[in-house]
């Protein structure tokens, strides 16, 4: 019986597909093992610090923190604080990213605008969100707008500078080649400049995500009645170190999960742009 070319190709490709699936499975298992090993190493270091270096009052052991975590979760207190902090981070972060990317693309493409605004950007980016808390409270009160503003401020400059860098580092030879082929400036921007800037923008957005979480905690410490920063403040006033460590561990875990979600979404929707150099 004659074997067609398609059938022969399937016979060759089937073992290759199985090999790739096995390789991916091994890589995922290895990543999971490294993640669990890293977590176990951190817990061991935490336990040793609590028992032998600082004492259980200054650094409660993991089991004490877990005992404090359970009633806080069951009562809904912790979940409410997480939800409030996440909503503030999400709002300020999204607005900051949209504003920074838009302004950065214009600054990267328009030399006069870049030369005019770049000194101002470089000057103002050294103002931390914590330093702006007093003026934010005066301007916006202790309501939600002040928190959004502080997260916005902690986001905008990181994304802005990375976006400008991505636009400016677009290979000029590609732009000249497109011009020789008759492309318009709008086509060059859409098909060459923007894809080349995406890796820089993604890096800026990921760094700014961590900055957004860093920005919201001091804001909630000083001017809030809910959120993880508020939980830290109230626990410190009562010297409840176990609840303090619940808040600290929660901040770390929520930030870690947010970063993993960000990486997943980037790989899902922007993966083809990240190979552009």
Protein described:
The chain is an all-alpha fold. It folds into two domains: 1-59, no CATH class; 60-273, MetI-like (MetI-like fold, Orthogonal Bundle). The chain is built from ten helices and no strands. Helix 3 runs antiparallel to helix 4 (111-124), helix 3 (77-109) runs antiparallel to helix 8 and helix 9 (228-237) runs antiparallel to helix 10 (241-269). The longest helix has 50 residues, at 5-54. The radius of gyration is 25 Å and the shape is flat. 27% of the residues are buried. The model has no long low-confidence stretch (mean pLDDT 86).
Q: Please indicate the percent range of residues in DSSP E strands (runs of 2 or more).
A: under 5%
Number of strands: 0
* SSE pattern: HHHHHHHHHH
Distance between the termini: 50 Å
Number of domains: 2
Q: Output mean pLDDT.
A: 86
User: How many H/I helices?
Assistant: 10
Features:
10 helices; mainly alpha; 277 residues; 2 domains; MetI-like fold; single chain
Summarize the structure.
Helices cover 83% and strands 0% of the residues.
SSE map:
Elements: H1 5-54, H2 62-74, H3 77-109, H4 111-124, H5 133-140, H6 144-168, H7 172-180, H8 185-222, H9 228-237, H10 241-269
Helix pairs in contact: 2-10, 3-4, 3-6, 3-8, 3-9, 5-6, 6-8, 7-8, 8-9, 8-10, 9-10
């Amino acid at each position: 019986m004659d074997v067609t070319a398609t059938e022969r190709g399937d016979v060759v490709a089937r073992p290759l597909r199985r090999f790739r699936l096995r390789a991916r499975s091994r890589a995922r298992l290895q990543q999971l093992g490294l993640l669990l090993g890293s977590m176990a190493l951190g817990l061991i270091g935490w336990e040793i610090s609590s028992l032998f270096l600082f004492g259980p009052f200054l650094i409660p052991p993991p089991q004490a923190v877990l005992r404090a975590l359970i009633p806080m979760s069951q009562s809904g207190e912790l979940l409410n604080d997480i939800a409030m902090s996440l909503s503030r981070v999400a709002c300020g972060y999204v607005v900051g990213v949209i504003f920074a990317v838009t302004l950065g693309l214009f600054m990267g493409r328009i030399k006069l605008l870049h030369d005019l605004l770049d000194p101002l950007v470089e000057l103002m980016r050294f103002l931390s969100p914590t330093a702006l808390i007093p003026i934010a409270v005066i301007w916006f009160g202790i309501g939600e707008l002040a928190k959004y503003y502080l997260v916005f401020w902690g986001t905008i400059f990181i994304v802005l500078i990375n976006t400008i860098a991505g636009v400016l580092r677009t290979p000029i030879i590609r732009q000249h080649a497109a011009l020789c082929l008759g492309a318009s400036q709008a086509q060059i921007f859409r098909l060459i400049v923007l894809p080349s800037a995406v890796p820089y923008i993604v890096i800026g957005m990921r760094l700014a995500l961590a900055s957004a979480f860093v920005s919201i905690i001091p804001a909630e410490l000083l001017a809030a009645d809910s959120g993880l920063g508020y939980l830290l403040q109230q626990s410190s006033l009562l010297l409840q170190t176990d609840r303090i460590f619940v808040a600290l561990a929660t901040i770390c875990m929520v930030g870690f999960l947010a970063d993993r979600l960000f990486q997943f979404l980037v790989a899902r929707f922007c993966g083809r742009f990240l190979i552009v150099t």
